[in-house]
Every structure is written in C-alpha cells, then in structure tokens.
Specification:
6-stranded mixed beta sheet, 23% strand, alpha/beta, RecF/RecN/SMC_N, Rossmann fold, Glutathione S-transferase Yfyf (Class Pi), Chain A, domain 2, 359 residues, 6-stranded antiparallel beta sheet
Length: 359
C-alpha cells in the first residue's frame, strides 16, 4: 500500500500543508523543529489513532488551534483507492473513509503504518504497555476476531475496576458477571496473541540475524498476565480482597508482556542503547514483513531521524531491504542520509511548517 497524497491541518507546527507522494522512498529534510517528524506523525495517526511521540495529547494541536485533521489518499496493491480522514475537535476523534463516517478501528484496519523513531528503544527497554501495543496492533491486522474480544475485555475490566473503587461495600454478585466476561475474553486474547508471536518468530529471527548476528540465537518469551496453570475467573475471585485494597485488577490480559532474549545477552540489561535500538528496529521490520506475508502488501514504513539513529552500514542495509520489498518509505533528517543519496528518492525541504519538493 502507499499514500498518494497527505493533507495536514493544525498538527503541531503544520498549519495547512499538502504533500504529493510517490512510490518508493520520500525524504523530508530540514532543521530541527521544522516539522519533519510531524509529517510522519500524521501518517502514523491514520494507522494507530495515536501518536508515536510521548506527551500530552493536547501537544498535537497547533498552538492556538482547537482542531486538527489529516486527510490522505491510500492506494492498495490491488489498485483500490481509499480516501481517509481523521479529525480531532477537543477530545473527540472522528474518522472518515470515502466521505462516510467510520469507527476508528475501521480506519486503523484500512491503513497500516509502522515507525522506527528515537523513542523506539522503549519497545525493548521500557514498560510492558509499549510491547502490548506493538503486539495488539499486529494481532488486530491478521486476526479478525481479536478486536471484538479486546473491546469486551476492556469494558469488563472498566466495570470491575469501578466496583473495586466503590466507596461502599459491593455485593459479590455484582462482580461475578464481569469476572466471567474477563475470563472468557482473556482466553481468546491470550490464544490470538500467542499464535501471532509464534507466527512472528521466524521474521524476528531473520531480522536479528541481519542486524545483530553477534548476539547469537533469539529467544522470545510471552507472559499472558496470570499464572499459566490457573483459571483467570477463579483467580479474580480469590484475589478480590487484594484488588479491593489496591483499587484495580492486578491480573489478566491487560498485564501481559513479552520480551526478546539473545544467546549472548539473556537479559535486556545486557544490551547497549545501540543494541536496544537495533532490536527495536528488527521488531518493526519483522512486523512489517509478517503483515506483507499475510495481507499481500507492505505497510508504509516511517524512519524518523534515520542518520542519527543508525550507523551508515545499517542505514544502507535497511533502505536496501525496503526498496527491494517495494515498500513506501518516509525518512526524516537534517539532510538527505548518505545511504539514500545513491538511489532514487523523492526529497522535500521542510522549513517552519512549510514543505517544498526539491527533486
């Protein structure tokens, strides 16, 4: 798939810009703070309904603006073209496709964007939430029943947590239906997550063999969020007094985690910051490759500040791999990275929120 055009209004320093896009590699070059990353952020919003940058959601809005919007024309490998839109007014997001209002999940299901950026090492070194997001985005795009189970689980979790925080004593009978729902939906979520990781594993192994061969064989570990030999419903009932004391549900699918270990770096503390970045990059590329295998087209790949995040040999290797695959790639940098100077690329200059094509 590829974006043929991107229009961005009110996103950070981008007041109203239109970016015509071509297949292959597009480079957005300019000084720090010019708005380069915000272009990648706009594409990412269409695929995730959130930013890859940390910080308050209000920071997305241009200073003084009360709304933002991103519009795009997306062409699939089969030639089908979709007109996508995502807007935010206050705290409310609105998604559109071909002029019709759709749910956020429908929009996210249509457009697939993966991103490697300066904060990506959090996928390896950060908390479990980042790894669950990565995992669930991948499962969502290949397993259709996942989103229904995930929504039901989130609703039941919210209801149980509300009961746990009640100021007066809550009868046990009120907990039982929500705990049963958590038990049922968690089983589905756990199964689909484990299945996805098993399918992802050969792609992870291939990516790591190319990026970090010195670390040896890869091992992937998955923890579902409660004891492997226990029934979640029974655990929730038996641990209810503890959860009441803490005011939230302490076990379940929302506590799941997974990690990568290497033969010569069995704990993540053994990895340098550079190795964390390369491991995260390998995870991003592996997820993109699996998406392409299952869906018949590559997702759009964003590489933010490529020259600062990777050394020249790794830049060249990644770009060559993505070019060979036929993926559409967006790259940012203060200048055109050396690895991209030899091959064909569409180049834009970004300055103070304005974008102009150079080549």
């Amino acid at each position: 798939m590829r974006l043929e055009s991107l229009r961005i209004r009110g996103l950070r320093c981008l007041e109203d810009v239109v970016v015509p896009l071509q297949p292959g590699v597009s480079v957005f070059a300019g000084a720090n703070g010019a708005g380069k990353t915000s272009i990648l952020e706009a594409a990412f919003l269409l695929s995730h309904a959130r930013s890859f940058r940390s910080g308050a959601k209000d920071a997305l809005l241009q200073r003084g603006a009360d709304a933002l919007s991103v519009f795009a024309e997306l062409r699939h490998e089969d030639g089908q073209v979709r007109r996508l839109g995502l807007g935010r007014q206050g705290a409310r997001w609105e998604a559109r496709m071909d002029g019709e209002s759709v749910s956020l999940s429908e929009l996210v299901g249509e457009c697939a964007v993966v991103c490697f950026e300066p904060g990506s090492h959090a996928l390896i070194a950060g908390g479990a939430e980042e790894r669950r997001r990565y995992l669930d985005w991948g499962v969502f795009h290949v397993e259709h029943e996942f989103i229904g189970a995930w929504r039901r689980y989130q609703r039941a979790l919210k209801q149980r947590n509300s009961l746990l925080r009640a100021t007066s004593t809550v009868p046990e009978a009120l907990f039982l239906p929500w705990e049963a729902e958590l038990d049922t939906t968690a089983a589905v979520i756990d199964h689909l997550r484990a299945l996805y990781l098993a399918t992802l594993r050969p792609h992870i192994e291939q990516a790591m063999a190319g990026l970090l061969p010195e670390l040896g064989a890869v091992e992937m570990k998955y923890r579902r969020g409660w004891a492997d030999d226990a029934d979640l419903g029974e655990l929730l009932a038996s641990q209810r007094p503890r959860d009441l004391a803490r005011g939230h549900t302490t076990m379940g699918s929302h506590r799941a985690d997974w990690q990568i270990a290497f033969e010569h770096a069995p704990q993540r503390e053994h990895l340098s910051r550079g190795q964390e970045k390369l491991t995260a990059l390998g995870c991003v590329l592996a997820q993109a490759a699996l998406y392409a295998e299952r869906r018949g087209e590559w997702p759009i790949v964003c590489l933010d500040d490529l020259a600062s995040e990777l050394d020249r040999p790794h830049q060249a290797a990644v770009v060559e791999q993505l070019r060979s695959a036929g993926a559409q790639v967006f790259v940012t940098g203060t200048e055109v990275p050396e690895a991209l100077q030899a091959g064909p690329a569409q180049v834009f200059h970004v300055e103070q929120g304005s974008i102009s094509p150079l080549l």
